[in-house]
Structure formats: C-alpha cells, structure tokens
Amino acid sequence: MTTNPEALRSTDPQIAELVNAEEARQRDTLKLIASENYVSAAVLEASGTVLTNKYSEGYAGRRYYEGQQVIDQIETVAIDRAKALFGTDHANVQPYSGSPANLAVYLATAKPGDTVMGMALPMGGHLTHGWSVSATGTWFNAVHYNVRRDNGRIDMDEVRELALRERPTLIFCGGTAIPRTIDFPAFAEIAQEVGAVLVADIAHIAGLVAGGAHPSPVGYADIITTTTHKTLRGPRGAMILASEQYAKAIDKAVFPGLQGGPHNHTTAGIAVALAEAATPEFSEYAHQIVRNAQALADELQARGFELSSGGTDNHLLLMDVTSKGVTGKPLAKALDRAGLETNYNTVPYDPRKPFDPSGMRLGTAALTSRGMTEAQMREVARWIDQVVGALATEESDTLDKAIDQVRGEVNELTGRFPVPGLDR
C-alpha cells in the first residue's frame, strides 16, 4: 500500500501544498538537466511503501535485526536483476547515492595517501574522482587527466603517459559532463599495464548501457559504480557492480565500512526499475535518448552554438555560450523562467569561475521519457536561441517579452506529453 495523499493533506497541509506545487512544476516545464529524469508510477509506489519502516543492517541471511523474511527477498531480487541486466558477477544495491558508492570503492581497494587517477572536474569528471574539494582529494594523492584543447576528447595516449608516470592504485573513467563514448577497452589496457584497479563510473550512462545504446564496461572495468536515477530511470540510490575478486571487499566497505541499514523502500524501487530496464521498450527509449541528443546538438550548431567536442554520442550536450554574448548562469536562470530547466556548467579550459561559468549542460533523458522525439528537440533549440538572443540585448523588456512567448509555447507542448508517474 502506498502513501495516502489525503493523510498528508490532513496532517501537514503546508508540505502537501509544496509537494503538489513541485508536481505541477515538473509537469509544466521541460526538464533538460542531464542528471534528472522521471520514474514510473510503479517505481514511485515501491519507493513510498511501508518498507521505509524496517531496519536491515547487514546482508540477506546475515542481518543484525530480526524480521527480515521479506526484506531479504526484496534485496535478493534487486541484486539478481542487476547482475542479469548488466552481466556482472556481483552487485551491491545498498549505497545511498553515487558519492558513497565511490567512497566504498576507495575503502575496498586503496589506502589513504595512495595515488588515484581520474578526469579533472573542469573537464567533465566528478568530485569523487579525487578533486581537491572532495574528501577523495584530501585523503588520496590525486592526479587528473584532461581533454584535448583542439577537439574536446580524451587523449588516451596522454592518459597512458600519466598512468605510467604516476602509477595509480585506482583509475576512474566516466564522469558528469562527458558527451562522448567512453573507451573502456583503452582504459582497461592502461590499467592492466600499470597494475591499477579500473573503476567505471557510469552514473550518467547506466540506462544507455542497459539499453544497448552505449558500450558496456563489463569485462573491462574491475568495478562499476552507478546511480540508479538519471538515464536508468530508478529512485535516488546507487549500485556497485564488480567481478567476484572484489565482491567481499566491496560489501564490507559499504557495510559496516560506510553506512548502517539500507533504505529498503529505495531497494524495492531499484528492483522495479531494473525489471523495467530489461524490456524491449526500455531499449528503444535508450536509443531514442541518443537520437534526441544528436538532433538537439545538430539544431543548436545550425544556430551557431559551440558544443564541446563538436556534438554528442550519448544523452548530454556541453555548450559554450560566450560567443553569443552571454554566460551560463544568467542564461540558465532566464531559461528557467521560460520553462526550460537546465544547469549552468563549466566547459573544458573555461576561463570563468564554476559559479559563473561560460557554459551550460543539457540532457535529453527526461524529455525522452515523456515521449518526445527529434521534432520536439528542434523546438527546444529554437527556444534556447530565442532566449539567448533576447538576453544578449541586455534589455529587460526584450528579455521579458521573449520569456513570456517561449513560456506560452512550452506550456502548449508540455500539455501534449504526459509525465511518467504523474499522468496516468
């Protein structure tokens, strides 16, 4: 049984009103943030069950609390589905989110002070790949690879040179703003040459991997981490997939190394999402995400926008808007007013600061979940161009007029495409 909305309204009308407002916002705007998506009604229901009442420290068959007869089955189902979907020896579905999942990998395979290697954050990497403001950059000797200035792509020869010089214990591939296919075989060859553990962070592309729209790291990476939302279209959680060699160390690092009882309601939602991801419909959705991203990229480039690496192979685009006479932060805020939800983002070798960068990151997973295709992506590009042009004039009346016009057209479009989990 799921939560009764009448109970929420009667108990806490203030929170109920805010939840309803957020539901309306999600329905009436275009979600273009690459790390966001919509879950199905089934995932929402599983995530809002009485499973939240149960504490379950430990693993199936090895708990520290009694009353686990049902919970053990749910977690085992989620594990089995993850292993089957991705083709791995081992799966841990307990991490609370992507960052703790990555921390568990460090705890399982490295010691404080060890050298670790990952993509630099300004190039598209993630905080937990050893960046200075993260605990991983404090506890470990972190070295970073970049993308090429001329084409925005990772130079694997440079990665190899850095790995040979620094001899890292861990090498991370993957990140948070990488618009191109990750060359897992090349990373694996380098990791093997220097004796490093290769970790593939596929948080952004897990749904594309599951749906066959991006090559899989299985068979190349020793350990794979991922969130369960984003393109995988599950609840806010994470998983660690690994070869049998690292299974025990990973499980011990997650519990008791970093956390206590898992969030059983989230585990149930993950299990449902994994079942959905094993269907032919999900595979078509994954491939449509890529088609939509490429259509959006083509239309933006036709309108004179500069894209990092010249385009995309996956679900996201990284766009430098300085040539248009604007910067990322004010543009993101203007687009938000127009009903286009984005995030400002640094671009490789960005001369501006992270909180006032030159670029924006765009993603197509959520729009694809609503059933939108290439035709709607071209409309989105037109609206972005319209708002950019108005913002560049630095005239508030011109900008307000453009925002009002785009907002009206966005409202018309969103009314034609239901939101999964909300419109049934």
From TrEMBL:
Enumerate the residues binding (6S)-5,6,7,8-tetrahydrofolate.
Answer: L121, G125, H126, L127, E244
Under Gene3D superfamilies, the record lists: Aspartate Aminotransferase, domain 1 (3.90.1150.10), Type I PLP-dependent aspartate aminotransferase-like (Major domain) (3.40.640.10)
The transmembrane segments are none
Q: Which UniProt keywords apply?
A: Amino-acid biosynthesis, Cytoplasm, Methyltransferase, One-carbon metabolism, Pyridoxal phosphate, Transferase
Q: Which GO terms describe its biological process?
A: glycine biosynthetic process from serine; methylation; tetrahydrofolate interconversion
Predominant subcellular localization, coarse grouping: cytoplasm
* Pathway(s) this gene product operates in, as recorded in its UniProt entry: One-carbon metabolism; tetrahydrofolate interconversion; Amino-acid biosynthesis; glycine biosynthesis; glycine from L-serine: step 1/1
Q: Does the keyword tRNA-binding apply?
A: no
Q: Which residues carry this modification: N6-(pyridoxal phosphate)lysine?
A: K230
Q: Which reaction does it catalyse?
A: (6R)-5,10-methylene-5,6,7,8-tetrahydrofolate + glycine + H2O = (6S)-5,6,7,8-tetrahydrofolate + L-serine
- CDD domains in the cross-refs: SHMT
Role according to the record: Catalyzes the reversible interconversion of serine and glycine with tetrahydrofolate (THF) serving as the one-carbon carrier. This reaction serves as the major source of one-carbon groups required for the biosynthesis of purines, thymidylate, methionine, and other important biomolecules. Also exhibits THF-independent aldolase activity toward beta-hydroxyamino acids, producing glycine and aldehydes, via a retro-aldol mechanism. Thus, is able to catalyze the cleavage of L-allo-threonine.
Can you say what this protein is called?
A: Serine hydroxymethyltransferase
